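Annotators were shown the component list below and the corresponding predicted structure, then asked to write short factual statements about the assembly.
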Amino acid sequence: QKEVEQDPGPLSVPEGAIVSLNCTYSNSAFQYFMWYRQYSRKGPELLMYTYSSGNKEDGRFTAQVDKSSKYISLFIRDSQPSDSATYLCALAQKLVFGQGTRLTINP
Amino acid sequence: GAGVSQSPSNKVTEKGKDVELRCDPISGHTALYWYRQSLGQGLEFLIYFQGNSAPDKSGLPSDRFSAERTGGSVSTLTIQRTQQEDSAVYLCASTRDRANTEAFFGQGTRLTVV
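Structure shown to annotators:
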């Protein structure tokens, strides 16, 4: 079993839609939960991180962690074409990444 | 430097040849990771260096792969006797400390084995 499972998509939605991206993990020892965004032919960049169960908001982005279910989510409100990228969940302390979900926002 | 630097950015090599990929992390970052990303795939962990501790090599796919980190700074990933399945983007990341809450990535080295 992989330590982190993420639906690779691809996911295509119209501009303005709410996007939900999800990961599940198997090891309850993970303490930090992150979302990275990767544009084509670029390295991933940190989008958000959290270390507790619950929600964390940053502008149009909300990260949600449910440690009891070992489930993490990223919500994007009012999605924009510039949000089109691959989104990867990551867990620390040893940085383990999900497969990444390729997201396209259609104008 | 301002960010993580990787070289070369692109490398085409013949099957069976050895290649060396270089990573120059952010100054002062104690942790360094190597990942491999195949087309349309996620990041496959290869190796992790933390300070002066023994590296975590658990992700290296075969004994053709090795890495070292000299002086706690620059790292080199070596692939011997390259195979076509080694073709991928090799990404290096560094973090400030053990907590690893924010990893900064280089642009990657795109390796093509022909």
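Statements collected:
1. Chain A is about 0% helix and 55% strand.
2. The CA atoms of residues 60 and 77 of chain A lie 5 Å apart.
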